[in-house]
Amino acid sequence: MFYREAGDFKTSYQSDSQTFPIKFDRYRYYVVLVVAFGIIPFIINDYWANSLLLPFLIYAIAAIGLNILVGYCGQVSLGTGGFMAVGAYSCYKLMTAFPETSMFIHVILSGGITAIVGVLFGLPSLRIKGFYLAVATLAAQFFLVWLFNRVPWFYNYSASGQINAPERDVFGIIITGPNAPAWATYLFCLIFLTLCALIARNLTRGTMGRTWMAIRDMDIAAEIIGVNPLKAKMTAFAVSSFFVGISGALFFALYLGAVEVGEAFGIQKSFLVLFMVIIGGLGSIFGSFAGAAFLVLLPVVLKVVGADMLGWPTDIVAHLQLVIVGGLIIVFLIMEPHGLAQLWRVAKEKLRLWPFPH
Amino acid sequence: MKMKLATVALSALIAAGPALADLTFPSLSYRTGAYAASGIPFADGYADYFTLLNERDGGIGGVKANVLECETGYNTEKGVECYESTKGQGALVYQPLSTGITYQLIPKATADGIPIHSMGYGRTSAKNGKVFSNVFNYPANYWDGASGAVNYLLEINGGDIKGKKIALVYHNSAYGKEPIRTLEELSKKHGFELSALPVDHPGQEQKSQWLQIRRDKPDYVLMWGWGVMNQVAVQEAANIRFPMENFIGIWWSGSENDVLPAGDAANGYKALTFHNVGTDFPLFDDLKKYVIDAGKAAGAGDQVGTVLYNRGLYAAMLAAEAAKKAQEISGKADITAADMRDGMEALEITEAKMAELGLPNFGPTFSVSCENHGGDALVGVTQWDATSKTWSLISDFKPTDGEVIGALIEEDSSAYATENNIAPRCN
């Protein structure tokens, strides 16, 4: 009923292997793009931007990054918070050192710096796997946070150890600092998210993605058929850290504006992004979106429903939220280990046949 | 991508809340998380004072006060969410009770024209009203605390602490790092040796720091701690038999929660303060009659009279007084955030006013001006008595080293002004 596939023929390999081979999906994707780029910027206000959309967009980038590493290449990482901090601090150093340069360049360079750091910390993955690698990346997390707290050069010797985003613009439009209009910060993050998602989608279905997945599924077999594990793992760490670094830079410069490394990029952040990837679906770009949306929206929805509408005490609502998120993670791990993305896949299969299943 | 539509639909629902015609005082509280033990009494005190005003006086100048509570969990991201969701509802003043959130809100609130009152926390150089138009940190700030502690040590040592060793145990965050600069300056001035020992969030693990204290044997230990870190530090100090009367905490390390777990061993522990302790004030009778016995107390209602409850009460009292001042200046009862800012800038707390409110000698006397957003910086010292389980004020509110602090404030605030292109006001 929803999917009318009759007559939707593919006459070339190219059209057969496009991201959205079904016409209905493709149109829906265009509609989402039009709404996101053409409509939301005109009706957005500070509350929407700062409470919902910015965190969603930024966490989605981080989740895509981590998904590449964990979901596609099978390398467990608990260092996301630390790598986000690398992105944030490189962005801060770049912003203060080169105030005239466009923010686009700063954010991309921050991603590049994070990619280098990520590769450095990814080197142990050649020798260790699974839990041991998780512990090694955990060390990266603690080391990086310690470093940014310890070395005053990173925070320009400010008395409090905080970094504050100065006002910077892109083509004359202010996008950081308190005077940045909501639509500008939103669009800036949206552009980065769209680009990241497109790049990630195309990387994961090309040669590089296939080598990652081969390593994930069985590294010895992959090596035997000619996949270079060094190259595959290092590229996965580099691409993943690049995205995570971009999200860290945006998180600091556009969303929070002032950051204290231990508080903003602590171990909780690593777990939060990992939960997004797990709940959203390992090895799925859509899953990264779904996971980020779920974990950003859920606390706000619970707060609005519990505290604002029903008038419950705020502490009860906050505790309830911990209970619900924890419960949902367990439920997902048991009922649907492939996450929201798999739920969506199943629903779509059903919808394609509905109302006449076999 | 699909989820974004749901996001939009939901946000439309959220944004639909109407603005209230009351005087809105958002309370960015934290009743959950690692710092809840410190956050709950403050939030209760803050809410109870406004409840009292509503019940007894019918509000402030005839307009009811509405305390809008929003849970931050001491987390800056939730703090941002709370700020954004409450600012549209006519918020008059923000008191986030978190240095991290304060730092975040300083530029945002200034751009939105809403004042922030970071009472005894936040960015110290915000005292300079020439640069920070919308931020207030009266009656005292961290640097006053650092200087107050040193002054107290000078007082008990007959004015000479040359060659004494002082250790600073601090929460390794923006908050804990605040006093270091001032203490370094003061150590040059008075010739004491300073050693700084950072403790990482949340502060449950302090064995190595106290081992170092045991080895170095400092004459005095100062502490900038918060939440669970305080109790652990007091316990660790007791474990190494550090003399408690030589252990002085900042005002955020001086509540019942911090000393009770250590039991008798905590006897004699000292803490700085900028308000009085206990319930021996006429206002508490009214509070009992109109709020507690009427069953309208916030939270569990079991925090009345604790140090942090009194601090919340004091914060609410200052906010209410500033609102009254704002009503007086603007000539209307239903004030806006801009009026509130003007009221805060013209605030004057005298002994007579505190007595009139039923809180004689509850805090230091001070006045705020356009240049000085930090009041007169008077700091007192309290001491814990483990047998009667009470704090008592052992040193009255005394002036701090304005010369050293003033220079540091000037330096830090002018750096902020150049960084953000702020032209000085008050000319």
Kindly, what is the distance between the CA atoms of the first and last residues of chain A, rounded to a whole number of angstroms?
A: 15 Å
CATH class of the largest domain in chain B: Alpha Beta
Oligomer: heterodimer
Number of helices of chain B: 14
Q: Please outline the major beta sheet of chain B.
A: 7 strands, mixed
Mean pLDDT of chain A: 90
Strand order of the largest sheet of chain B: 6-5-7-8-9-12-13
Low-confidence stretches of chain B: 1-20
| Topology of chain A as a string of helices (H) and strands (E) | HHHHHHEEEHHHHEHHHHH
User: How are the strands ordered across the major sheet of chain A?
Assistant: 1-4
Structural class of chain A: mainly alpha
Q: What share of the residues of chain B lie within helices?
A: 40-55%
Low-confidence stretches of chain A: none
| Number of discrete domains of chain B | 2
Radius of gyration of chain A: 21 Å
SSE diagram, text form:
The complex is a heterodimer of chains A (358) and B (427).
Chain A lengths: L12 H4 L6 H21 L2 H27 L7 H18 L5 H20 L7 H21 L12 E2 L4 E2 L2 E2 L7 H23 L2 H11 L1 H6 L4 H28 L1 E2 L1 H4 L2 H14 L4 H25 L4 H22 L3 H15 L5
Antiparallel strand pairs in A: 1-4, 2-3
Helix pairs in contact in A: 2-7, 3-7, 3-10, 3-12, 3-13, 4-5, 4-6, 4-10, 5-10, 7-10, 8-10, 12-13, 13-14, 13-15
Chain B lengths: L1 H14 L7 E7 L6 H22 L7 E7 L4 H12 L11 H14 L3 E2 L17 E2 L5 H15 L8 E7 L2 H17 L2 E7 L7 H10 L3 E5 L3 H12 L7 E3 L6 H4 L10 E4 L8 H11 L14 H24 L6 H9 L2 E2 L1 H6 L9 E2 L10 E8 L4 E10 L2 H18 L8
Parallel strand pairs in B: 1-2, 3-4, 5-6, 5-7, 7-8, 8-9
Antiparallel strand pairs in B: 9-12, 10-11, 12-13
Helix pairs in contact in B: 2-10, 2-11, 3-4, 5-6, 11-12
Subcellular location (chain A): Cell membrane
Pfam family, one (chain A): BPD_transp_2
Keywords (chain A): Cell membrane, Membrane, Transmembrane, Transmembrane helix
